[in-house]
Amino acid sequence: MNPSSLALPTNRLAKAAGETYLKFQLNRQVPAVFSMRHVQEALILPARRLTTMPNMPAPVLGLTNRRNRVSWVVDLPQLLGLSALDSNTQQHTLILVQVGSVPIGFAVQQVEGITRLNPEDIQSPRGQVTSALVPYLRGCILQKQDDKQEVLIVLDAEAIAQSPLLLGNEPV
What we know:
single chain, 44% strand, mainly beta, globular
């Protein structure tokens, strides 16, 4: 990602009044956020609690039962066209989201916590990420973190839930 073409937010007071987002690492190199309005829970799931299903697309890791609700678990980086998470792991870091009535568990590298972002600071992702990723984003935001700048990608949970792969419109 190229942070030189993004602008830092200018109004520091607006940051405190922004919307809440869950910040996480998609993989080791890509920080991202989800709006908290879709996030239900973040958790560590032991691998044995994941039931794999045959003939599913590679990003679909399987099913899990959490609080009497069955949810698909998806390798989010792989779904978005990035490198897949380590499949030989003893546990998965999950973000459970709810889009409409559909619960989905997204496996990610690491959850970092909650942050506030001003929606007006979200900028176009074009030129920052691969074109395959753009349909799943609300945009990018440049954030100063420990005397360095990082580009956060702002994911759109609704667009990801409508992915052709998750809706069964893409070949296995």
